[in-house]
Amino acid sequence: MAAFFKKRKFGKKSALKEEFKVKTDGQFIKCDSCKTTFWKQELEDNLMVCPHCGYHFKIYSLERLQMLFDDAKFEELDENLYSPDPYNFVDKKSYKDRLRDMHEKIGIKDAVRCAVGKVGGYGAVVVALEYRFIGGSMGSVVGEKITRAVEMALEKKIPLIIVSASGGARMMEGVLSLMQMAKINAALAKLDEAKIPYISVLTDPTTGGVTASFAMVGDLNIAEPGALIGFAGPRVIEQTIRQKLPEGFQRSEFLLRHGMLDAIVDRRNLKDYIVKALKFFLTNAK
């Protein structure tokens, strides 16, 4: 009896359903914070910031450069640098295979893009870390490219902007990745001596050796709302100090209240804020 009254699946209806699925597949995005669903294009037009609650979705290195440079025009630097895998590192797969897979998937050879161009009419060097590339981790190539970017800013006497998004130093390169912390900061010290502005932008997440080195030593340290910023993870800290951490610990709002940041700036206002800061720095430097 049950089988007799079972609904038939009509081919035409199924085909229509499949056609609708194909047309709408990937066109909607749900906000991770307020759970509101939006057209993908609407979110992209809003710089990947939820128009309902202001939640900042992750965006990537190329989008960062396009967002900051005037008319999205810039010259990329040192695109062809790649890691030689100094330790022949292997975990679940070899480091060489991991680097090759990342390059094929994302289109860059390591976890950073460096470029030079105009920001609000001012010449500037902009560095943007790429979180999709092994968690934006800092190995020898990332360290070398950032150092060269700093040296270009010093040579051209133009401001430097670094947008961080990283899990920290890259374990596959061991001590060589840790050395990049000192290497980059030594270059930044020369930039400071020359009184050339360095603006650090911290995004979600900025952690580990990146936080412990160049991300926190800008002349101006600004962050996006809700960004995770810290050195060790909350679980490791709680286990070490045997105390419960305050709510919102390591989020940009907490760091601003405790003097670790100069400002929190909504991504939609970020370029305007940076241009005003550059104007202040460069006017007062004369």
Task: Chart the SSEs and their pairings.
Layout: H1 11-24, E1 28-30, E2 37-39, H2 40-45, H3 61-68, E3 74-77, H4 95-106, E4 112-119, E5 122-129, H5 140-156, E6 160-166, H6 174-193, E7 198-206, H7 208-211, E8 220-223, H8 234-241, H9 252-257, E9 263-264, H10 267-285
Parallel strand pairs: 5-6, 6-7, 7-8, 8-9
Antiparallel strand pairs: 1-2, 3-4, 4-5
The CA-CA distance between the termini, in Å, is: 90 Å
Number of strands: 9
Coarse shape: globular
Estimated helix fraction: 25-40%
Class per helix and strand makeup: alpha/beta
User: Strand-residue fraction?
Assistant: 15-25%
Q: For the record, what is the CATH homologous superfamily label of the largest domain?
A: 2-enoyl-CoA Hydratase, Chain A, domain 1
**CATH architecture title of the largest domain:** Alpha-Beta Complex
Continuous helix count: 10
Name of the CATH class of the largest domain = Alpha Beta
Structure report:
The protein has 286 residues and is an alpha/beta fold. It has two domains: 11-57, no CATH class; 59-285, 2-enoyl-CoA Hydratase, Chain A, domain 1. Helix content is 40%, strand content 17%. The protein contains ten helices and nine strands. The strands form two sheets. It has a seven-stranded mixed β-sheet, sandwiched between helices. A two-stranded antiparallel ribbon has the order 1-2. Helix 5 (140-156) runs parallel beside helix 6 (174-193). It is globular, with a radius of gyration of 22 Å.
